[in-house]
Design goal:
The complex is a heterotrimer of chains A (395), B (571) and C (395).
Chain A (H helix, E strand, L loop, with lengths): L14 H7 L4 H15 L9 H13 L5 E6 L5 H7 L6 H8 L1 E5 L7 H13 L2 E6 L2 E2 L8 E2 L2 E2 H10 L1 E7 L1 H5 L1 H4 L7 E2 L1 H4 L5 E4 L6 H14 L12 H4 L10 H6 L9 H4 L45 H4 L10 E3 L4 E3 L1 H32 L15 H9 L1
Parallel strand pairs in A: 1-2, 1-3, 3-7, 7-9
Antiparallel strand pairs in A: 4-8, 5-6, 10-11
Helix pairs in contact in A: 2-3, 2-6, 4-11, 6-7
Chain B lengths: L2 E6 L9 E8 L2 E9 L5 H5 L7 H6 L8 H14 L5 H27 L6 H4 L4 H11 L7 H16 L19 H21 L1 H7 L26 H32 L13 E3 L19 E3 L15 E4 L5 E2 L16 E2 L22 E4 L8 H10 L3 H14 L9 H31 L19 E10 L2 E10 L2 E8 L1 H6 L10 H7 L13 H9 L4 H4 L16
Antiparallel strand pairs in B: 1-2, 2-3, 4-5, 6-9, 7-8, 10-11, 11-12
Chain C lengths: L10 E5 L3 E2 L5 H10 L8 H11 L7 E7 L7 E8 L5 E7 L1 H8 L3 H14 L5 E10 L5 E15 L11 E5 L3 H25 L2 H7 L5 H29 L15 H14 L15 H25 L9 H11 L1 H31 L5 H7 L1 E5 L13
Antiparallel strand pairs in C: 1-7, 2-7, 3-4, 4-5, 5-6, 6-7, 8-9
Helix pairs in contact in C: 1-2, 5-7, 5-11, 7-9, 9-10, 9-11, 10-11
The chains are: A alpha/beta (395), B alpha+beta (571), C alpha+beta (395).
């Protein structure tokens, strides 16, 4: 592969080589190791004495071939991280032990409180990769989500400052997901709305498939740059095509074979779920190709229509989930009308209008016929028009 | 030693964001405040939506207890529209939620809780051969060779050379770690094995419900069609896979998880008296695996244990629930001292805390986003220990037999189940019972299919036109973390009010107007005896908090006013 | 000096059945009335009498030798006429019945009957033109005889214009290219609507084929091909807006450009809504209301194309062109685009009845030839009509 661009830590490069390339001197590095040694405290595996510990750390870290990763969890449900744990292509244990050094992640890390914050501070100060779960609530100065006493926004900004690449994992980090759905009480926004000066990779989904997260990560590790992205920052390798275009039920769609309701004969024959509200035709996601949970299956295959969770604002735009198209609430009646009922009503109104108008035309014509025509003066009977008469009278 | 204020924020290895503030006095905790520091307002988002969509919103309350909110939501809607689901769908739901709970319990123990008991760095010094002998003495689990443990040890050692990653900054070497290196290595190996195990067994969700996390549910049944003669439906291939997963799940629970918990617990017997929390406990029992509406009947009926009297189960009456906001950042027209039943909640978020970044929350009357629900004025514990204690009180033989054996090994009485160790043990104990139930459910499902009853969906009340104009319903569910209920009001086929009463709300609640602490706080500071040796390395506190398996995204929710929308003021 | 301030073509003169007296024949009465007209008259009543009389007798046998025009005081005119073959001369007086009666002094009974009848019969604006004949005695004395009267009415002719082919001239308006595009668009829109509806509600054909066909893919294929053709048609039409030599087809014919046209727009609308009944202003091309309506439906068609192709683009979002279209999907969400696309179809379907009705109406009721013009390309213009959008060439 090509040389990585400036920021990345390429495969095969040691941590020390990488730091040198990034302009970090050995002296700075040793100071850092001293601080880290304090963090590890009385780690039993290491010889006692902070100086010796620092040297040991320095020895180990300079040879380290795993890039540092900060994985923040902001305003979210942890589903995305749970999804990551299910990864099959690059299992989580391999990622954790062999591919990256996951320095900060609230769900998995050993320390809590001050020790955790210290780890974060250290990690944020050196080159790292930033992965983010969860949205950033901007309301109430960020009081809707605080970690270590500080707002999610500040935390994100600090962690992003020296990040080589930023990956927003999941719909919350992309745009706010469910908490950003109308009426968005907390003012939740995505990472790219806060970090505006750098590209953010959006790994869409609620949650994303584990393998798309790990593959985006390993792609970066392998080639030193983020994968090519589509218009809204999603990696093309995963979000370049619709579920619909790769769906195992697609043949049924083309044949016009549809399940008309859940568990009917057609559903049991494995026919297309489009009529049950499947959003696969509107959803860019690799569900049908990568599939979920070690490639076992995915919602459409398992009989449930796609909810469209990789698309922006899907809680507002893809709902109602069980209808092909959004409906309209007729004010006052509380009845939902579809586009077709409205359309049929419009056509009926138009035809009715035509009928009424033509009737009115006929009536108007008859009336016009009946009406006294304007009688004109007759010269042969000595009529003069008024003007002339007046002139006559004057003279 | 003078009193000292300690803040632990973030509490890691939990779901969501929790902050614990403590006052210590000479190595003992004198006072504690549990602060939930995240608010999302999902119930408000649900207003005005199609009730059939509600599960997909409610499910996103939590991605760790994924599915439980969806199932409670679906049940609440089914209760409201009076929809009965086919038996096969009920069994599939039971299998799905049972597997979720098993996976949740195991992952909680190994990945969220174990590092409180297990010193990873010490494991690197262990003798693999001795570890193999230790493991073989505990269980017939085949993955116990010295070669295997050597490989694990080498893998983690090599990894540590390239950066400690998630283990960096841990409290390694803390005197509170008491396991011998061999036990540590065994637990570490199982930590890694559990990672592989969980992604295998959870495929049951993928087959029945499309994916995990956040599997798909359906009002009126389940979306997966059963057809033994079709490639795309639940056929024999899928059933075989599921049988394999249930088997795999049961084996791991019986041969790894349960023995590990017992083994590790035997090194920490004092924790059977540490972390004693609220003596009032609620569980809706096994009936909550198959009901809609108020929990009723079942092998283990719903009930309440009051004030430490673990022998008598009182009937559970939801009318006695009241939620207080005296310590939470909400306002309600009735004032802070008034507790409201969930049906009457008229609450608005109203942040009065300091502007972030802040140093302390404890000095203030309001310090959390979590409300304080009380049952008859009592703080209540929910969760596996509540379920086990209730089953024992109701004389459930299978539970009694297993718990008797386990408690005998730990040389502890029934009251020890309300403790840090008790809660952790109950989780394992329950997993064993549940793994057995999974087999029974699956057998029942197979019998149904054999008898030709393969319906998984009841279409009668699918179209909103078939619903009454006004309806209200409730759906109960025993989630991994305790009793969960969703409450829905439907007006003109749209949701007009939605509420969730969530396990972690009970457990992580703050103080009520009477000053009574919530269960987390009681566990830490209830008796003034909870140890905390080194405030910089608060491992004892983590043990107790983690024993509850906190789920803070679940805990914090917003009750919305009924009758169509009072504006929530958020500046 | 003309008594009438209106074009002669709008004056309609009607002659009632002549009412002869004193045993005369109607024919004689009519001829007498005609002979009473002054030589070279332009008065429409006179012309009508002359034309009617000319059918009865060859008036060239008479020669007018004198004429006393009508004076206000006497209220009668008298013509002196000589019969060429016999040389016999006679006087013919015309005027109000009572004037002529006064002149003629018939017997009391005749007089009474004449006055009463004239009064009774003269309804609907008809008036009686009394006619008297005076024979000239050799002594020069005049002997007058009351011949009778003729009901006469002159009205302004508004509703019933002449429909003679000779009254029209043919103007070519629409090029064949435009007509071809119009009918192509009609065909395509019908095809697109039908296939679109069938795709949306598969039930229809599903019931027939039981799903064992590829009918949905065929529907989609036809829909897409029709969509591409409609796009081509739209591009040609847009090019035509700027390239066509026909000024009725260029871009400035899309909307009213002059203030007067805006006023006319309101007037046309009022005419259609029966708020006024006069004749709306005439246009050779489209009137302002048509311009606005057709431009709006043109815009709706473009919107249908944009939404349609934006949805179509989803199958290949990386395409160099579709890449831009997909931005719309991201902006509003695919579901709402689908909804818009479907609603637009219904706008078309509701437009069609109104459009067809008004065109037929223009052809039959208003004789403007709008319907036939989109077939033949030209329209018939009535001679003498002043057109707002062109020189009223009456060639």
């Amino acid at each position: 592969m090509n040389d990585p661009p400036d920021g990345g830590w390429s495969r095969g490069e040691t941590f020390l080589q990488f730091l040198r390339r990034r302009g970090v001197s050995r002296r700075e590095f040793l100071t850092f190791c001293g601080k880290m040694a304090a963090c590890f405290g009385a780690a039993a595996a290491l010889p006692p004495g902070s100086r010796a510990l620092a040297q040991e750390m320095a020895r180990k870290l300079s040879a380290a071939k795993r890039p540092s990763v900060i994985y923040l969890q902001l305003q979210e449900c942890t589903g995305c991280l749970e999804s990551l744990l299910r990864s099959g292509s690059s299992p989580i244990d391999r990622i954790l032990l062999e591919q990256i050094s996951l320095d900060y992640n609230e769900l998995l890390m050993a320390p809590s409180g001050g020790a955790a914050e210290e780890v974060l501070r250290q990690a944020a100060d050196r080159p790292h990769l930033l992965l983010v779960n969860g949205s950033v609530p901007l309301g109430q100065d960020g009081a809707f989500c605080t970690i270590g006493g500080d707002s999610a926004e500040n935390l994100l900004r600090r962690a992003a400052r020296k990040a080589d690449a930023i990956m927003a994992v999941g719909a919350c980090a992309e745009y706010g997901c469910v908490q950003a759905a109308s009426p968005n009480l907390t003012g939740a926004v995505g990472v790219a709305d806060v970090i505006t000066d750098r590209p953010v990779v959006n790994i869409s989904g609620c949650p994303p498939i584990a393998e798309t997260i790990t593959a985006t990560l390993t792609y970066y590790l392998a080639y030193g740059h983020t994968p090519p992205l589509d218009g809204i920052g999603r990696p093309v390798f995963a979000y370049g095509q619709r579920i619909h275009d790769k769906c195992p039920r697609r043949a049924s769609f083309d044949a016009g074979q549809f399940a008309e309701r859940f568990d009917d004969e057609n559903a049991r024959r494995g026919y297309c779920l489009y009529r049950l509200g499947c959003k696969g035709p509107a959803t860019f996601a690799p569900c049908a190709t990568i599939e979920w949970n070690l490639g076992q299956s995915f919602p459409i295959k398992a009989g449930h229509p796609c909810l469209g969770c990789t698309e922006r604002d899907f809680y507002d735009r893809m709902t109602p989930f069980y209808r092909r198209l959004p409906g309209f609430v007729v004010p006052g009646l509380g009845v939902e009308a579809t586009a077709n009922t409205i359309g049929v009503a419009a056509v009926a109104a138009s035809v009715g209008g035509v009928l009424v108008h033509s009737a009115a035309t006929v009536i108007a014509k008859k009336r016009a016929k009946k009406a006294q025509p304007e009688t004109l003066p007759l010269a042969v009977l000595g009529d003069t028009d008024k003007a002339t008469q007046e002139e006559d009278q004057k003279t | 030693m003078a009193k000292e204020r300690i803040v632990i924020d973030p509490i890691t290895r939990i779901e969501g964001h929790l902050r614990i503030e403590l006052e210590t006095d000479g190595g003992r905790i004198g006072n504690a405040w549990a602060c939930a520091t995240q608010f999302r307002g999902i119930e408000r988002v649900l207003q005005g939506r199609d009730p059939r969509d509600a599960w997909a919103f409610a499910q996103r309350i939590c991605g760790v207890c994924t599915g439980v909110h969806a199932i409670a939501s679906v049940r609440a809607v089914e209760d409201a529209i009076k929809c009965k689901i086919p038996p096969c769908a009920e069994l599939i739901r039971s299998l799905v939620s049972g597997m979720a709970t098993l996976q949740d319990h195991v992952m909680h123990f190994y990945h969220l809780h174990a590092l409180d008991w297990v010193d990873v760095m010490s494991a690197l010094k262990a003798d693999p051969a001795a570890t193999s002998r230790l493991a073989a003495s505990l269980s017939p689990w085949p993955n116990n060779s010295a070669t295997w443990y050597r490989e694990v040890q080498k893998r983690v050692t090599d990894s540590a050379a390239g950066g400690l990653g998630i283990f960096a900054g841990g409290y390694w070497g803390h005197p509170a770690y008491r396991l011998p290196p061999e036990a540590n290595l065994m637990a570490l190996a199982h930590y890694l094995e559990a990672l592989s195990w969980q992604r295998e067994i959870i495929r049951l969700h993928t087959i029945f419900a499309g994916k995990n996390p956040h599997p798909n549910y359906l009002v009126g049944g389940m979306a997966c069609a059963i057809n033994l003669d079709n490639q795309m439906a639940i056929n024999q291939v899928r059933l075989d896979e599921i049988a394999g997963m249930i088997d795999q799940a049961r084996r791991f629970v019986l041969e790894v998880y349960y023995p590990d918990v017992l083994a590790i617990a035997s090194f920490y017997p004092d924790y059977a008296a540490i972390g004693v929390s609220s003596p009032t406990l609620i569980a809706t029992g096994e009936s909550a695996y198959s009901c809609s509406g108020a929990p009723a009947g079942g092998v283990i009926p719903a009930g309440v244990l009051l004030d430490g009297n673990y022998g008598t189960a009182h009937p559970f009456e939801h009318k006695r629930i009241a939620e207080f906001v005296s310590s939470a950042w909400y306002s309600q027209p009735e004032g802070d001292r008034q507790g409201l039943h969930p049906w009457q909640g008229r609450t608005e978020p109203h942040y009065t805390g300091p502007k972030p970044p802040f140093k302390e929350l404890a000095g203030q009357p309001k310090y959390t986003w979590c409300k304080a629900p009380r049952y008859d004025g009592r703080a209540v514990q929910v969760g596996p220990n509540a379920r086990i204690l209730l089953a024992l009180a109701q004389g459930h033989a299978e539970t009694a037999q297993l718990a008797g054996e386990g408690l005998g090994k730990l040389k502890a009485g029934v009251e020890a189940l309300n403790s840090t160790l008790g809660r952790t043990y109950c989780r394992a104990l329950e997993s064993v019972l549940l793994a057995r139930r999974m087999d029974q459910w699956f057998t029942q499902l197979n019998e149904r299919i054999r008898s030709g009853d393969v319906a998984t969906f009841n279409p009668e009340l699918w179209e909103p036109e078939s619903w009454p104009n006004q309806a209200q319903g409730m759906g109960f569910m025993e989630a991994a973390r305790g009793t969960l209920s969703h409450w829905v009001e439907i007006d003109n086929r749209r949701i007009s009010r939605y509420q969730a009463v969530v396990p972690s709300t009970w457990n992580s609640s703050g103080r009520d107007p009477g000053g009574q602490m919530g269960p987390f706080e009681q566990a830490l500071a209830g008796d003034g005896k909870h140890p905390l040796a080194d405030p910089k390395r608060p491992i004892e506190v983590l043990r107790t908090i983690h024993s509850f398996d906190p789920c803070e995204s679940c805990a914090v929710h917003l009750l919305v006013p009924g009758g169509g929308g009072v504006e929530v003021k958020v500046q | 000096m003309s008594l009438y301030q209106i074009p002669a073509s709008e004056i309609r003169v009607e002659l009632g059945v002549p009412v002869p007296f004193a045993g005369r024949k109607r024919r004689d009465l009519l001829i007498a009335a005609a002979l009473g007209a002054p030589l070279g008259t332009k008065d429409p009543v006179d012309l009508a009498l002359l034309s009617a009389a000319a059918k009865k007798e060859d008036l060239r046998h008479y020669q007018q030798t004198g004429f006393t025009p009508l004076e206000p005081r006497l209220a009668r005119s008298v013509a002196r006429v000589r019969r060429l073959d016999s040389g016999e001369e006679a006087l013919f007086a015309r005027g109000e019945v009572d004037t002529i009666l006064y002149l003629c002094h018939p017997d009391e009974a005749t007089r009474y009957r004449a006055e009463l009848q004239a009064e009774m019969q003269m309804t609907h604006g008809f008036r009686a033109l009394g006619v008297g004949k005076g024979s000239i005695a050799p002594d020069g004395g005049e002997r007058w005889e009351f011949l009778g009267y003729i009901p006469v009415r002159a009205t302004r002719q508004k509703s019933r214009r002449s429909e003679e082919p000779g009254d029209f001239y043919y103007v070519p308006v629409w090029d064949w290219q435009l007509r071809a595009l119009h009918w192509l668009a009609v065909l395509l829109i019908v095809v697109l609507s039908v296939t679109g509806l069938l795709m949306g509600s598969s039930r229809f054909i599903y019931g027939i084929t039981d799903g064992y066909s590829n009918y949905l893919s065929w529907l989609r294929l036809v829909h897409f091909v029709a969509g591409w053709l409609l796009l081509c048609a739209a591009i040609l039409r847009i090019a035509g807006l700027f390239l066509a030599s026909n000024r009725f087809q260029r871009w400035y014919a899309l909307f009213p450009v002059r203030v007067r046209d805006l006023k006319n727009l309101i007037q046309v609308a009022q005419n259609y809504l029966f708020c006024r009944f006069d004749r709306p202003p005439h246009y050779i091309g489209h009137n302002p209301l048509q311009q606005v309506a057709y431009t709006a439906i043109f815009a709706v068609g473009l919107l249908a194309l944009v939404t349609g192709f934006t949805l179509y683009a989803l199958y290949d979002p990386q395409n160099w062109f579709f890449h831009y279209l997909v931005r719309f999907d991201e902006l509003v969400g695919v579901q709402y685009l689908r909804l818009a696309h479907q609603l637009i179809m219904w706008i078309f379907l509701a437009f069609i009845p109104i459009h067809v009705y008004l065109s037929v109406r223009a052809d039959t009721v208003e004789r403007e030839g709008a319907l036939s013009s989109i077939v033949s390309g030209g329209r018939w213009c009535r001679r003498g009509t002043r057109f707002e959008d062109g020189e009223a060439v009456d060639n």
